[in-house]
Amino acid sequence: MIQYLDMRHDRLSLLVVLLFGVLLIGASLLNIYFISTSREELTKTILLNPSSVKKYDHLIIGILPQPSDPFIANLYKGIQSTAEKYHQALQFFTYDMGSTVSTVPLSPEAYRYFEIALRVKPEGIIMFFPAGMNIGDFINQARAKDIPFVGVAMDVPPLPEARFITSDSASHGKAATIQALQTLGTHARLGIILPSRSSEIIQEDPFLRGALEAIQETGYGRIIATEREEENILAGEGAASRLLQDHPEINAILCTSARSTIGAAQVLIDRGLVGKILIIGADENEEITRLLEKGVVAVTLVRDAFRMGTLAIETLTSIKKGTYQGEILRVTTNIKRHGN
Question: Model confidence over 269-281: pLDDT tens digits?
Answer without folding.
Answer: 999 999 999 999 9
